[in-house]
Amino acid sequence: MYPPKTVIEIARKAAGVSQAQLAVWAGTQQSSVSEYESRRKSPTLEVVERLLEAADAELAIKPIIDFDVRRDPEVGQYLVPERLWSVPMPGCFSKVQVLGVLFKSRRPRVWDLSLEVERIDYYGWVIGRGIAELMLDSVDGILLMQVWERLHLPGVIREAWQPVIDAATVSQDIQPRDPAGFSAWLAQEIGVEWRPVRRRKPRQ
Predict the structure, then answer these.
(1) Are 79 and 44 in contact (CB under 8 A)?
(2) Are 24 and 65 in contact (CB under 8 A)?
(3) Residue 135 contacts residue 83 (beta carbons within 8 Å)
(4) What are the φ and ψ backbone dihedral angles of 80, each rounded to 5 degrees?
(5) Which of 95-109, 135-149, 178-192 has the highest mean pLDDT?
(6) CA–CA separation, 63 vs 149, rounded Å?
(7) How does strand 76-81 pair with strand 67-72?
(8) 10, 26, 136, 163, 190 from 115: Cα distances, Å
(9) Fewer CB within 10 Å, N side or C side of the chain?
(10) Is 128 exposed, middle or buried (0-12, 13-18, 19+ CB in 10 A)?
(11) At a CB cut-off of 8 Å and minimum separation 6, what does 44 contact?
(12) pLDDT in tens, 13-43
């Protein structure tokens, strides 16, 4: 497995700037940025945050997606995730390119994920191939659910993924959220009591 890109490199490329430009904005050396991105040197959390801020990005916590490796006599090895995930914009609508040798071709294959018909074709291909890194970086859960029924997938893979799709679309039996903690903050600011609403039990 190839080493994943560092958050510094991801943020820098998303900002469309060079290592030298990022270094200037963050008040450091280009050589340091290069060492951090190549993992030859480990930055402190403070340095990472400073570099990301210079690239108009921030660290975020997101759950790790585990895949179950399964095998089938006809389709071979395939992967099934424990849950769906999201791919931030504009990445979920970007153009993606895959090495041509995977299609026994000299030319690379390119899909435009902003076009639904190409997104359907790509999602079916990458899920069928079972390449975790590609899926995590390009397959968005919400967009996948929208086209799920139209994907061309072997029956065994569709059947294995169906519970994951179903779990993402059913109503969750949890307390209502306070997005960003805004209502709790506002209640404190204006001096009123904040009482999260208790979820009502369904009538029998």
Answers:
(1) no
(2) no
(3) no
(4) -130, 120
(5) 135-149
(6) 26
(7) antiparallel
(8) 24, 37, 19, 27, 47
(9) C
(10) middle
(11) none
(12) 989 999 999 999 999 999 999 999 999 999 9
